[in-house]
């Protein structure tokens, strides 16, 4: 009898969920800009034309991948404190979640994501602001301001994690810790600032130790507190 041909593994059924999950996984691996419709189709062992049955274009696909990432965010509850504490927890969780998916937060810098998971966290964010006494007009502006803060902070985290992965790949794991990377970054800035002429750049020169002091999570918390304090101050005027 003739030999039985070796069977190829059966391809997974193509679906919107599979396409979006694959896209987010590729962003995690390669970064936002490197993920094209063709790259996604190759990963799914299909042709690019097959993807257009499910999405209009790359922009829509990336918006869906962004929303899938946001779906990992767990909303805070009363155990997390009052409205302000819960708002800070919520923002921190969104930042951390998006930052863990490389630069998928880039989507929010050029578009207004409106997927169901994004709307879920936005609803909670606005609800907490109103609970804190922020008026409706300020709430609407705060959604945009906090969105920009979240996206930029997430991209900063993603850049650091990407640098850490690169250091590990180049056999320099000892430099891949947050403490070492922060110290090296501060040292580079310090070298630049201290080389400036005190006459030409008197303020930068004077503030150099503070400008390069790092701060990490404390600095991020300070920024968020200033935003919320500003919203409350605006309300009191």
Structural overview:
The chain is an all-alpha fold and 237 residues long. It folds into 2 domains: 16-70, Homeodomain-like (Arc Repressor Mutant, subunit A, Orthogonal Bundle); 78-236, Tetracycline Repressor, domain 2 (Orthogonal Bundle). 66% of the residues lie in helices and 0% in strands. It is built from 11 helices and no strands. It has helices spanning 16-30, 37-43, 48-51, 58-70, 83-99, 107-110, 116-131, 136-169, 178-194, 202-211, 217-236. Helix 4 (58-70) crosses helix 7 (116-131), helix 7 (116-131) crosses helix 8 and helix 8 packs antiparallel against helix 11. The chain is globular. It starts with 15 loop residues before the first helix and ends with a helix. Residues 13-73 form the HTH tetR-type domain. It comes from Umezawaea endophytica. GO terms for molecular function: DNA-binding transcription factor activity; transcription cis-regulatory region binding. Residues 36-55 bind DNA. This is TetR/AcrR family transcriptional regulator C-terminal domain-containing protein.
């Amino acid at each position: 009898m003739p030999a039985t041909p070796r069977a190829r593994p059966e391809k997974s059924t193509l679906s919107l969920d599979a396409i979006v999950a694959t896209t987010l996984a590729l962003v995690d691996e390669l970064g936002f800009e490197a993920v094209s419709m063709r790259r996604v189709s190759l990963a799914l062992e299909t042709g690019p034309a097959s993807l257009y049955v499910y999405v209009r274009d790359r922009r829509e696909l990336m918006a869906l991948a962004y929303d899938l990432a946001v779906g990992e965010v767990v909303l805070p509850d009363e155990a997390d404190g009052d409205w302000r504490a819960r708002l800070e927890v919520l923002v921190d969780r969104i930042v951390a979640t998006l930052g863990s998916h490389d630069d998928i937060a880039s989507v929010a810098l050029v578009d207004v994501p409106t997927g169901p998971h994004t709307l879920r966290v936005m609803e909670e964010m606005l609800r907490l602001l109103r609970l804190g006494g922020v008026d409706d007009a300020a709430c609407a502006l705060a959604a945009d301001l906090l969105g920009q803060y979240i996206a930029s902070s997430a991209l900063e985290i993603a850049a650091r994690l990407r640098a850490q992965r690169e250091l590990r790949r180049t056999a320099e794991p000892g430099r891949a810790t947050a403490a070492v990377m922060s110290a090296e970054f501060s040292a580079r800035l310090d070298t630049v600032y201290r080389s400036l002429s005190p006459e030409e750049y008197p303020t930068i020169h004077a503030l150099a130790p503070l400008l390069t002091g790092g701060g990490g999570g404390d600095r991020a918390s300070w920024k968020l507190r200033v935003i919320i304090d500003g919203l409350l101050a605006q309300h009191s005027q």
